[in-house]
Every structure is written in C-alpha cells, then in structure tokens.
Amino acid sequence: MPAVPGFPASSGLATFQHIRRALAGLIVRDAAGTLRKGVLRTSDASLIVGKTTMAVDVGDFVAVLDRNGAVLVPNVGVTTVSISAAPSSGFRWSVIYVRQRESEAPFSDGADGPVIDKVESTTSLAAARALLPAGAMELGHVQVAPGTVGTNTAAITQTVLFTAAAGGVVALRNQAEQDAWTPADGSSAYRIDLKARLVYLAGVTTPGWYHAAGKPVLTNLTPGAFWQAAAGLGPARSEIQGGRVYLAGSFTNNQSVSVAAGTEYNVGTIADAAARPDVERYFASGTTSNATAGTIRIATDGGLWWRANAAATWGAGSLRIDFGGITFAVKGIV
C-alpha cells in the first residue's frame, strides 16, 4: 500500500481509515507485526464484576481493537450487561464483548458506534464464542449453573489481554499469556503474578523471555536421600534475577554418612528447570562444620553433586553443604 494522507495534516484528506492506520503505529505489535488487541492497563481490578441480579457490571477501560488499523474504544464508568436466566439443566456460557460497529465500506455492520454486549450458548463456551460478531473482542465470560439468581455466585473469567503503546511494557497475568506473546527483540513485559519485569531476547542461544528486574523467581531446592535443609539458615533455594541464577541456603545430613575422597554424592536437585545450567558448572565448596573442602558439580538436569577432597565420617547433622555464593548465567542467554 502506498503512503496515505497523514494525520493531522493541513490537507485534511485523512479519512477514518487513514487515521486508524496512523494510530496503529502507536500500539505494540508482535514479532510478525500484528497489532496487539486488548485493553490499556489502568488497573488490575476485575473488569467484569458480578451482581445480585442476572447482570454484570463492566468497568472503566480503553479498548484497542483492530479493524484495518487501531480503533480505540473507551468505556467511561460502568456499563451493565444483562445475562439470560439460569438454565434448567447444564450450564449457560455468556461471552461479554466490546465492538465498534461500522456501516461505511469496507464494513457493513448496519449501524455505527460502540457496543458492549454478550453472546450466549448452553452447548459450550466454544459455541458461544463462535457467535461473536465481526470485529468483536472478548472481555470475559460468565458460566451460569441451574438455580443461579445472581451473577455474583457465577463463575466469571477475565480473558481480555492487556496491550500497551509501542515500546511500552505489556502486562501479562500468568505463564499462559507469556507463552502466547512473542514480540520483537528487546520488548518488555511485566508478569503480574510474579511481580517481575521481563525482557524478550531473540538473538540469544534460546530466544525467549528472561527476568530483568523486580521480584526474583524463588524455588526451593529438592534435598537428596540422607539430606535436608539446614535449620535456621533460611530456605535452600534457587533465585532467578536479572539474567542470572543464584543459589542460597544449605543442606545438612540427616543421618551418619561416610565419604571417600574423590567420590561424588548427590545432595539434591535444582527443582526449577529454568534455573538449571545449560552446561555443567563446578564450584569450590567448603563446609562450615569442618575443614574438609570439596567441589559442587551442577549437572544440566539440576543435580547437585558434592565431592569431598578427603575421606571422612560425620554424624547426623554434623556436615553442612553451603550453596551461598554460587551463581551462573541463565541457560539459553549466552
């Protein structure tokens, strides 16, 4: 498509179609250049809220739709959408949506203007979604059981995605939303559930999302046979933060053990697969309970293997293996 009239411009030639194509340049896109539809994040409060009647309240939002370009549809205040009465058996699924109707070519919706409404089915959620009109964007859905007299007791699911301005931070509710979002190299996101800032790296060994800032991803290490987390020293765990893995805490033997010099013993496992190294890592290790030094080998499957430099025997609880100070790059980033 050739250049179209600019907006704003003194020529005044820009049509609504030209303007929405210009606005599309202000909204974040995926790696393939597809506009990300959704609502601009202004709050983490539920957008669809149940009532004591068969209706739901749809809260304040600004939606970004894609109809040959970006269409911004604000909902100012609260819009109430009525839900059909509960079925006598089975369930009814009501899909709540927002839509900008267009009667001018190339669209033929029969009317103009925004609408927030629902489509329903007693067959399945998929059947209800199949009834969404052209250009509609799902905000969420309500599952109503027999005997329901108010949607405040129905199952309400918020499904609309968050979007953002181009170059902005896209909010992701969970792992599923993260897995479904593949933007351009260097794009940022915020995992609401993890309280963590992520960056998408395309030009690394394993392209994907990596922790950049915020709350670290914490997962307890799994102790091996004859071992347990040492009491009073904080949890033995892995921490992913800023593109690196950090280990913390200690394991102690829970029964008497004898070790031979140069022999490896499995003391535990890094439970979080994302915190395991892409190549074997070796770290010098002493113990705070005695002078016998050793080596910790971290295998690619997360296995934590300790090798003593000298033969010795320890009673239960007298040997402690410390993981503090162990750090390495997150796998796939180099």
Task: Explain what this protein looks like in three dimensions.
There is one protein chain. With 334 residues, this protein is mainly beta. Among the domains are: 42-160; 217-329, Immunoglobulin-like (Sandwich). Helix content is 6%, strand content 41%. Strands 17-23-26-25-24 form a five-stranded antiparallel beta sheet, with no helix packed on it. The protein has a four-stranded mixed beta sheet with strand order 5-4-1-11. Strands 8-7-9-10 form a four-stranded antiparallel beta sheet. A hairpin with an 8-residue loop joins strand 24 (281-285) and strand 25. The longest helix is centred in the first third of the chain and has 9 residues, at 16-24. The relative contact order is 0.11.
Give a brief outline of the structure.
Helices cover 6% and strands 41% of the residues.
Q: Features of this protein?
A:
mainly beta; 334 residues; 41% strand; Immunoglobulin-like; 5-stranded antiparallel beta sheet; 29 strands; 4-stranded mixed beta sheet; elongated
Strands side by side in the biggest sheet:
17-23-26-25-24
**What about the largest sheet?**
5 strands, antiparallel
Count of alpha and pi helical runs: 3
Overall geometry comes to elongated
Itemize the secondary structure elements and their pairings.
Blueprint: H1 16-24, E1 38-40, E2 48-50, E3 55-58, E4 61-66, E5 70-75, E6 79-82, E7 92-101, E8 113-121, H2 125-129, E9 137-144, E10 155-158, E11 162-163, E12 169-172, H3 175-179, E13 188-191, E14 196-201, E15 208-214, E16 217-220, E17 222-223, E18 227-229, E19 237-241, E20 244-248, E21 250-253, E22 257-259, E23 264-269, E24 281-285, E25 294-298, E26 303-308, E27 312-314, E28 320-322, E29 327-329
Parallel strand pairs: 1-11, 12-13
Antiparallel strand pairs: 1-4, 2-3, 3-6, 4-5, 7-8, 7-9, 9-10, 13-14, 14-15, 16-19, 17-23, 18-21, 19-20, 20-29, 21-28, 22-27, 23-26, 24-25, 25-26
